[in-house]
């Protein structure tokens, strides 16, 4: 069994994981060989966060996937877009329009249906 070659701490962790009733196990911040060994040793699916391509699934935060932050990219992140600058520019334009009262206008508001308006005006 692969466990025998692992450190005692990992063997203990694997034993505890086997005893727990779970739908899945998230493995994050774990060395790749350890994450791979855990995935092979337990019956429930593993979800990796920068752990191992051998995990049963992978997860990334939306902010990382679409590139909302430019200051730091964790090693386990692959960006599929760079939306941070576009989002920042859009929010600045929106804020400027609100401050200048260019947004919102009547075209962005809900009106009252004509039949209700007519009924109310005849009731008064």
Helices, by number, come to 5
Order of helices and strands: HEHEEHHH
Shape descriptor? elongated
Radius of gyration: 27 Å
- What percent of residues are in strands? 5-15%
Q: What structural category characterises the helix and strand content?
A: mainly alpha
Specify the oligomeric state. single chain
Task: Give the termini separation.
Answer: 86 Å
Low-confidence stretches are none
Biggest sheet layout: 3 strands, parallel
Compute the number of strand runs.
3
Strands of the widest sheet, in order across it, are: 1-2-3
Count of individual domains: 2
Summed over residues and divided by their number, the pLDDT gives a mean of 85
**What percent of the residues sit in helical stretches (DSSP H or I)?**
40-55%
Walkthrough of the structure:
The protein has 124 residues and is mostly helical. The protein folds into 2 domains: 2-59, no CATH class; 85-117, no CATH class. 42% of the residues lie in helices and 8% in strands. It contains 5 helices and 3 strands, in the order H-E-H-E-E-H-H-H. The chain has helices at residues 8-19, 32-41, 62-65, 84-99, 114-123, and strands at residues 25-28, 46-49, 57-58. It has a 3-stranded parallel β-sheet with strand order 1-2-3, covered by helices on one side. Strand 1 (25-28), helix 2 (32-41) and strand 2 (46-49) form a beta-alpha-beta unit. The radius of gyration is 27 Å and the shape is elongated. The termini are far apart.
């Amino acid at each position: 069994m692969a466990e025998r070659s692992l450190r005692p701490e990992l063997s203990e962790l694997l034993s505890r994981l086997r005893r727990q009733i779970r739908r899945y196990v998230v493995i994050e911040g774990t060395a790749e060989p350890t994450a791979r060994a855990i995935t092979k040793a337990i019956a429930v699916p593993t979800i990796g966060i920068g752990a191992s391509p051998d995990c049963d699934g992978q997860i990334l935060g939306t902010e990382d996937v679409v590139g909302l932050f430019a200051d730091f990219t964790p090693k386990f992140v692959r960006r599929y877009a760079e939306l941070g600058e576009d989002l920042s520019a859009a929010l600045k334009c929106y804020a400027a329009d609100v401050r200048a009262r260019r947004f919102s206008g009547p075209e962005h508001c809900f009106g009252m249906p004509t039949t209700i308006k007519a009924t109310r005006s005849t009731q008064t």
